[in-house]
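cache lookup: miss for this entity combination. No prior model stored, computing from scratch. Input as submitted by user K.M.:
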Amino acid sequence: MKAEGPAMTAPLPAPDPLAPPLCDAQGRRMTYLRLSVTDRCNFRCTYCSPASWGGKKDLLDAGEFERIVSVFARMGIRRVRLTGGEPLARPDILDIAKRIAAVPGVEHLAITTNASRLESLAGPLRDAGVTQLNLSLDTLSAEVFRRISKQGDFEAVLRGIDAAAGAGFQSLKLNVVVMRGINDAEVPELVTYAHARGITPRFIELMPFGQGTPVPTAELLERLAASGSVLTEEPQESAASPTSGPARYWRMDSGRVGFISPLTQNFCGGCNRVRVASNGDLRSCLGGRAQAPLHQLIRGGATDAELAVAVRRALGEKPEGHRFTEAGNGATLLPMMGIGG
Ligand code: SAM
Ligand code: SF4
């Protein structure tokens, strides 16, 4: 007869912190990493750079970015965006792009840039494996450009955008931050400018990081309709797709047009994004605070598994959404330049 007693079960192996999926506290699956490669910039846009923001020298090197991306890719990240500051201000940007594009698991490598250095860099970036560029341009007037971007070189930006349009990227977008009384009247012209170059324009509601008054997306849609455009809303991409982002798109005869509406249509519900700031701190939310000092951990000799544990712990605290619209919240945030938008 068999002896009665407590059933013997082997202890379960500890879960591998590097194994996908990478989920946040709300159960949202993270597939998209935004990496700020510098907090320095050759422009000083009024909405981005507070006067006191001096910037420091770049902290992480190309090998450290590659290491961070490879840990995230093992955890399920499929799309990476390099931003800043101005990512093309880094002299080693081609090396960074080449290394990240070659990380197994990375399917899309994008860069957000002010376009001022693209005349010479568009082709080499494409050859390095960059698949998508987001180009920032808020106006077609040299005078308004000077008011917004201060030290920026307008002609170099226009030449850079034309170089990007001819370089064969999979996707090009034009980011326009809309400010009342500054550039809001230019929306139809900016749509025409972008579509003429095969670029998708996207109009962004100004977030409270600097100066200026935002214009709600609904008002821009009404104005475009009033100027004779027929707009049909596209179905939203599933949040599970690594290519899905915060923009909503409409179709017009001449092409697509996107709107990013952090203030009037909170985009946090479908969030699939994790951010690493230019100092190497993981930020689980644009409106949140530093949570995992990845750079310090790397320099301290952390293993990939230890980095993955720190990432999971930080994402365990990821809030449901930013709180830009709450009184006083904008003032306490890290400047946009350090997080990269
Ligand atoms: N220097 C690059 C550029 O300008 O494209 C990349 C960094 S920039 C911080 C990334 C994006 O954030 C840009 O498209 C910029 O227009 C946008 N941005 C900056 N400050 C913003 C704000 N206060 N509200 C909304 N978008 C902002
Ligand atoms: Fe520089 Fe881009 Fe910020 Fe303008 S928006 S100051 S170009 S980082």
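stored under new cache key. Residues 62-75 form the longest helix (14 residues).
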